[in-house]
Amino acid sequence: MRFNGFHAATLGILAAFVAVPASAKTISVSATTPDANEKLQEALILAVPGDVVQLGAGVWKLVDGLSLDVANVTVRGAGAGEGGSVLDFTGQQGAGEGLLVTSDDVYLTNFAVLNTKGDGIKSKGADRIVYHQLRVEWTAGPNETNGAYGIYPVESTDVLIDSVYVRGASDAGIYVGQSKNIIVRDSIATENVAGIEIENSYNADVHDNIATKNTGGILVFDLPSLPMQGGHNVRVFENIVNDNSTPNFAPKGNIVASVPAGTGVLVMANRHVEIFDNIFDNNGTANVMIVGYRYEQNDPKYQPLPRQIVVRGNQHGKAGYAPKFAGGDMIAAAMGGSIPPVLWDGSGDAIVLDKVGVLSLNLPDVKTPQSEAKPSPADLSKGTPPAVLPAIKLPDAMEAKVR
Questions:
Q1: How far, in Å, CA of 76 to CA of 132, rounded?
Q2: Among 14, 69, 81, 359, which is most exposed with the fewest C-beta within 10 angstroms?
Q3: Where is each Right handed beta helix domain found (predicted)?
């Protein structure tokens, strides 16, 4: 298993996304400068394509959120740990994110964002964005008043999240929504409601991460009434998913508020998802859950079934000993103290090739659009898996940034 991790040594930067203009420059900003908040925002406004905004070492006491809308800009700190560049939003006056990016070809690297009132770092409509060696943390630990998302790219094409650390998000630590061509790797998500979440997205690889002490480790969801839906082609592989036992602290009404504590990987209403070569251990509800969307919704185009879900080649440790769903404790008692590591609600179709027990709840059918026939549920230990999904390939210039 390849794992560079959040604490990996800083690696060289080898290339820019596009040709750097002759006027490109480095704009250095110090944490000790008077009016540091204003000076940093000014640097982000005045930057031109090709510029580097260099954050000095130290703790930045910030009261307002930051924004960047210039393409092909690098924001680089002096490190994301102690002694590095720490953007501390404990005194933030508004309820927004710490940093909002709305431009393409942006590279964010080597700094920390702490205690934002809203999301930590958000990008919207920002194609070819790289999040690298970052830390986003709510330092008091799990609390429903924490910001919803740590790392939060949405509505983007080509997203790379590499070697980040996120702790304490009241929704998802690392979240990618309504996007396509995504890689999330070599990262740590701990003490969030959802450690890593891929939602309403196409073509994603989630690998070589550690998801531990969350409510749910890794979620692959597709939800109704969003502009982009029909999530599909997601690979979850070579991750360590263990001890996801934190009680759910999401605000009421949030979809992840329904995630049972002790969930390893949860797939809901997605198509063609492969879960393979992961290490699961000590997830009290289940190592893998496969479910349909069972909430009231009025979207005639929405497909609520999980389809073509494949679980293969994983290592399963202790699981199912403290299931946190209605009736779960009684089922576990009837089965000798624990339920099997793989839990399926009975909707859609899935193939489990791991040599472990599978519990199907055989719940009532999920309503499907009239235009789509329901797939016949596959035998969970037999059948022919769908074609293996290819690896996600991002532009070479994006990969060069983090080598």
A1: 10
A2: 14
A3: 146-293
pTM for the whole structure: 0.92
Compute the half-sphere exposure of residue 91: CA atoms within 13 Å on the CB side of its CA: 7
Tokens of 325: 């769903």
- For residues 199 and 355, give the distance between their C-alpha atoms in angstroms, rounded to a whole number: 29
Return the residue matching tokens 């080509």.
158
Using alpha carbons, list the distances in angstroms from residue 166 to 80, 175, 227, 251, 320. Answer: 11, 11, 27, 19, 26
User: Sorting pLDDT into bands at 50, 70 and 90, what band is 369?
Assistant: low
Q: What is the DSSP string of 173-204?
A: EEEEES-EEEEEES-EEESSSEEEEEES-EEE
Structure-token match 């859950």, residue found: 289
Residue 287 and residue 352: Cα distance in Å, rounded? 12
Instruction: Say if residues 123 and 129 touch (Cβ distance below 8 Å).
Output: yes
Mean pLDDT of 332-359: 93
Could you count the other beta carbons within 10 Å of the beta carbon of residue 120?
Answer: 31
Nearest to 289 by CA among 314, 272, 309, 313: 309
Residue type, 383: G
Distance CA 251, CA 278 (A): 30
- The number of C-alpha atoms within 13 Å of 318 and in the hemisphere containing its C-beta is 10
Rounded CA-CA distance 111/25 in Å is: 20
For residue 241, what are the β-bridge partners? 211, 280
Report the C-alpha gap between 94 and 10 in whole angstroms: 33
CA distances to 131, 182, 341 from 163, rounded to whole Å, are: 8, 14, 29
Q: Where are the alpha helices (DSSP H) in 74-222?
A: none
| Alpha carbon distance 165, 335 (integer Å) | 38
pLDDT at residue 258 tops 60: yes
**Burial state string for 74-110 with b = 16 or more CB within 10 A and e = fewer than 16:** bbbbbbbeeebbbbbbeebeeebbbbbbbbbbbbbbb
Secondary structure element (H or E) that encloses residue 42, with its range? helix 36-46
Q: Which residues pair with 237 in a beta bridge?
A: 207, 276
pLDDT digits (tens, 9 = 90+) for 14-56: 233 344 455 689 999 999 888 999 999 999 999 999 999 999 9
User: ∠ CA(228), CA(231), CA(235), 5° rounding?
Assistant: 140
Residue 243 identity: D
Phi, psi of 166 (to 5 degrees): -135, 135
